[in-house]
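Retro notes (design track)

What went well: tokenization of the new backbones is finally stable.
What didn't: we kept losing track of which sequence belonged to which structure.
Fix going forward: every design gets posted as structure first, then sequence, in one message. First example under the new rule, 118 residues:
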């Protein structure tokens, strides 16, 4: 056997392998498309205009902003468990009396350490 015929045979096998790989990729893409179409057919139809949400009779609901204060933690000599707390630890917050938002004080504690320089 000659070296040139070996190279031609190797190139032919490589070409056939690439064609087969291309056919496999195309088959996978077609299969994914068919599967997607089947899944789409099983999904419910989009809502009709009469099924769309409507505004309430009173009009649009607007956001309400208020400053809330947490309930105070009861002091005790021993560690409290949730069932020992008032309302079993589910005490709601209450509206702030001042109505102003708390701000960090200069030089006070911040999110990174003491808040001081460097």
């Amino acid at each position: 056997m000659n070296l040139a015929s070996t190279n031609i045979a190797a190139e032919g096998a490589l070409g056939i392998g690439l064609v087969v790989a291309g056919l496999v990729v195309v088959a996978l893409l077609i299969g994914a498309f068919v599967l997607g179409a089947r899944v789409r057919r099983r999904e419910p139809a989009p809502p009709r205009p009469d099924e769309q949400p409507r505004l309430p009779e009173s009009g649009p609901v607007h956001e309400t902003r208020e400053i809330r204060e947490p309930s105070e933690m009861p002091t005790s000599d021993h560690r409290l468990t949730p069932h020992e707390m008032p309302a079993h630890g589910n005490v709601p917050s209450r509206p702030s009396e001042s109505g102003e938002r708390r701000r960090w004080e200069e030089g006070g504690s911040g999110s990174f350490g003491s808040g001081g320089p460097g």
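Added context from the reviewer: The chain has a mean pLDDT of 78.
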